[in-house]
Fold:
Amino acid sequence: MAKRLIPTLNRVLVEKIIPPSKTTAGILLPEKSFKLNSGKVVAVGPGSRDKTGNTIPVAVKEGDTVLLPEYGGTQVKLGDKEFQLFREEDILGTLHD
Structure:
């Protein structure tokens, strides 16, 4: 049975992007070369509410590639995949090509 997690409020579900451990030529890369901690947004909550009850939408959307903090987030396992759940304000930025 497939499960889908829809985050609440201003939370964002992210699947971390794991960089390759070796080059196309077969050269193994050291762990320290993976400096960029990024992930792909899988699901987004509706947003937080202000004092008057209006919804403030989340700045990122599904499919965005985001820059994540080194530590933080809540680890979630759905099926055989692992995800992390972050608050919108914990996400450092979006990455564009």
The first strand starts at residue 11 and ends at 16. The mean pLDDT is 85. The beta strands are 11-16, 38-44, 48-49, 55-56, 65-67, 74-78, 81-87, 93-95. Residues 13 and 85 are 5 Å apart (CA to CA).
